Amino acid sequence: MRRALLPCLLLLSACDAQSGDAPDTDDRDPVAAAAVNDPLMSDPDLAGQNQGGAALIGGGPASAEIPPDKSSKDEIDAAKAAALQIAGGSLAAAPLPEASSGTSPLDTAVTAPAIATALKIGSPACAAQLDYTALWAAKLSAPFEVYPRGHVGQSAGSDAKGCRLRVIGFVTPVAVEDVIAFYAARGKAAGFTAMRSKAGDDDLLQGTRGAASYAVAARLRDDRMSEVTLATSGI
């Protein structure tokens, strides 16, 4: 019986060898190919490639393309509708600028401490204590939260004693005029003063309530998105 089966087994082996040619890889998805060919994480020398916690620890630059900011009419309408609801159903027009200058204090301010100092929000000593984390944007207090559906970029803050500061940067497809009107109305309803000015490319709105203060700087980018910097102290 064994001698009878041996020729059959040899024949099957030959067939397998002929059909086992390497597949043509020209049509393979390069992303899938890279994933399949990547060395296994069980190799201790390669364990550092695991970026499972990269979003939490800042494990280096992003390797994927960042999706573009939404700017469709539907997105604009949804953001403005949400802002109107937050404001209680009505929004007065933004106050007219009371002053103007050729340059903005933010033209040379890049870091959060520099921005807070340039906008005169909090003291320089407090600004030096700012640290970066996305949680600060979520910890903004009313009435100066991020404009509805705004996409947050920079997010810094401090809750040190006597130094309650926030410096948040975000973009929105809503027009600068609408953004300024929203924060002017929100601030006024909460008892803050409001003074609007033009400074270079920035539209500035600033106000105080006792020891608390805020500043909103908004400018129109080349892609028609509004770039907004929001800074608060003691709020």
UniProtKB/TrEMBL annotation:
Keyword annotations: Signal
Signal peptide interval: 1-19
Region (Disordered) location: 38-74
PROSITE patterns: PROKAR_LIPOPROTEIN
Protein name: SPOR domain-containing protein
